[in-house]
## 1
Amino acid sequence: MLDGLREGNPIRSLLTQRGDGSPFYGWIIVAVGMTVIFSSGPGQSYLFSVFLDPIIEDTGLSRTTISGLYALGTFLSAGMVFVISGLADRRGPRWTLTLVAFLFGIACFTMSAASGAVLIAIALASLRGLGQGALPINSTLLIASWFVSKRGRAMAIYGLGGALSTATLPPVSRFLIENVGWQTSYAIFGLFIWLALIPLTLIAVRNEPEDMGLYPDGADEPPAGEIRADGTRETGPSRSEVVRSKMFWLLVLPLAMPSLVNTALIFHQADLFANRGLSADVAAGVFVPYAVASASSNVVSGLLVDRFGPRLVFVTAATVLVMPPLLVQVISSPATAVGYAMLMAAGSGASMMVSRTIWAHFYGRHGLGGVQGSAMVVTIFSSALGPFFLSSLRDAFNGYAVPLVLMSGMMAAASIVMFLHRPDRESRAVAVEPSATTTSA
């Protein structure tokens, strides 16, 4: 009877994947990844949006100037991501995660000491490059190396760390800002990152299952398609081969649109809400239901990616994201603000899941740093443009209406492009598919 209960336990069946019945070490890697993505908050837009108005008030810089500095810092961070993703391929994510965690703490301390435009731009470049770029890319590379057939659900569990960060860090930041100021708050975050990430990475992280004599998913043999006829392992395409291919650009440009739109909406959320008569506390508070919806979307879309592949999941997510730029113009109460935030979170969570899985889906798990790093650079440029795009057009058109309608149209275009493009029919890349039931999505 007990054996039957164990066999029917979904948690046990999820975690116990090795042939001898023991838990697969890859789930420890997922737990580390959750901690990494949680700790990336100080470099993410959802947290900076809470700091934006206090920084404007304290420094005297305008909203458009701060948006421009944010864009400049994010542009500069792309070079950092490009270098670090290459290091991940050469040295492994364990080494690069340790380095990035150390530098990310320094970036928080730099932001805590920033006062003028130059120092703020430098600090933002470091925070964005390390928090929005280098930490997430290294953790997703790790998980992509440890999982193939269950990559979607592993990424879904990993994404819960980001949802928890979105739910908890903005209210915590609001509390800290009110009690110790925005600069000391960043110093506290820097200390937390050092204490949380560096020891954990050194102790628990292993670059790939083969380092421990294992195979992805705890299987008894390597995934199909990874071993050549001569017994050597597939290495995947080079970075230059990737960026010269039509397939890469028809994937990455639509995938970058949610980053542009979501970053812009979140960055200016306090002002957008204020225009509708809602307070800064409401703007910060909706991140809690946002996180719940994002986590739910993340889990469901992870399972759907395993079943249908990432392309169709993205089409659905992009279609959902057509609505938030329109809805934010008509919200009128905390309840409608919560509904707006949850809809945006549902689309954002699904699109983020696709971004984490699609490159390994089409290019395989070896040499993935060059592929995913190149995609991350495009995404970073897109997220850098978002806040400045929205703020500049707001000034030009004396309001948010025109730029928000344009953003809605951009999401519709991204959905159409991904729906019409079928990259798996054109690719010669290694395609280690998630499961035998995956369609040609």
## 2
Amino acid sequence: MKHDVLRYLRCFESASRLLSFTNAAEELGITQSAVSHQIKELSLRCGFALFERRGNALALTDKGVLYAETVRNGLGLLENGLSQLQADNDRTDIFIHCDPVLANKWLLPRLDRLEAQCLSSTLKLVSVGDANGADVVIGFEEIIRYETISVDHDVCLPVCSPDIFEVGSNSLSSPEFQSETAITLGEGTRERQFGMSWSDWQAHFGNDTTPRGDVENHATVELALQAAVHGRGVALLRQCVADDDLRAGRLVVASQQKLPTNVPIFFSIDPDGPNAALCQRLRDWLINEMNTVSSS
């Protein structure tokens, strides 16, 4: 039999137990016609009828009764065998505490691939509260007694919606750049915490490469980013924060200039934790991902 046989057998088990294609479809979350089709295919493969109509009622044939018992026992053995194997996995929980902005815009798009690095463990992502006690910590502050590696080669990019560009252009000209609205966090301390300050950009590159048309302030990095996505102006964002939207084409780089940020991102692990070796491997994978973003 082909690979879809298990799907057919589950369908047959449900229909044989409920003696109703309608109820089986509801239990399996598929349509009644899909149940009818799968039962028909299974009957053809078996070489005998599985159901028959007795008046308005659905009934199993004699061979259908015997096969239903075989299928039910077989599926039960499969479920029990899997449960026993899963119980032997001795799964552990790995708690990752990540700055909310980094969690939302950088870590979450990579979480499925990170989970693939530790199939025997369950990753628990936390972005609020105290970081102490977490197995892995990602953020802008060092954690006392944790083993920390800093990544300090991230850069800031001016980004905007591709709708702002003229047709055929891959960047804004100097006059266009100056005429655009500067999207900011509206508070210098918050901007510098993330290394995304227009004042630093202006001091480094000069007035000609700084938006001066208007200023639009936002309370969070996420709001500033979404304002840029919706064409409100140009936002200065760390590359790792803008990476997901740049790859998806929701944002484009408005200028080829890049400003090195002086605010590192710290990747820390608890060296005395029970999963220290695994956490070190996860941290190495995450740092490699960050390096890949920074070099793109």
## 3
Amino acid sequence: MSAKVIDCVAIANEMKEELKKEIEDCKSKGASIGIATLLVGEDFGAKMYRKQVEKFCQEMDIDYINANPPADSSEEDVVKIVNDLNNNKKVSGILPLRPFPEHISDYAIINSIDVNKDIDCFHPYNMGKLTLGEITFAPATPSACIEIMDREGVNFEGAEIVVVGHSNIVGKPISILALNRNATVTTTHIFTSMAGNLAKHTTGADILIVAAGKAGLITPDLVKEGAFVIDVGINRVKVLDENGNPILNEKGKPKTKTVGDVDFDAVKEKAGKITPVPGGVGAITNMMLLRNTIKACKIQNGLA
């Protein structure tokens, strides 16, 4: 029997209506809500995400600022831009888009962001609070995973949760968030796999959260029967024909598609519940970012 495929788009749409009411409530009390993205230079991936954020802000009728200094800007100049955004009352949240150019330190930029405008929890202060369970802002993607589980009625207490991936952006914070809910959490990563121990951990997971950045990493033999599988991975791969050869588009270039870290078609026959890619966790991530932005607005305007 195939797994229940979680309709994350439906969850996101439900959240959108909930958050619109909160936005109107803030505006009715005279508060401005807005997001500023900080993109230094012209990184392609960062530019794509920036456009998504801008479109999202337009849809939700909140202010948007595109801070986009050139790649050769000095670190001092970029910090000054951040300070200007810190002092801008129309900006509730600041979202740095990485990678920064090599001569600009992530640490210098992130540490210059007002902790009450750090809506994706990059600042060490907010990460420290997250670790202590005294959360102001939790990172958007890990929070989206928690939101999915909450809406599916997961009881975290004592649940065996295995996280595959230990990045600062997803793996570590999702492990901490689940641990804060009294789950039993195991964090695995590339070195677990290299040591030949990945299956030992993943096959015992009631809930398997995969954020490793490797297409098709999780196959059915790595999954417990009936497990809840959450796929955070986003990978672009070539579309192949039945002989394993790339299928070309009208311009003669290989076609590509977006897939997760989980072999979806195979694993859904063994899992109990599963999130798809695309249309999975990513659909809810923007909603979590907006929820943090609304919270930031309330803090800054004495409405929290």
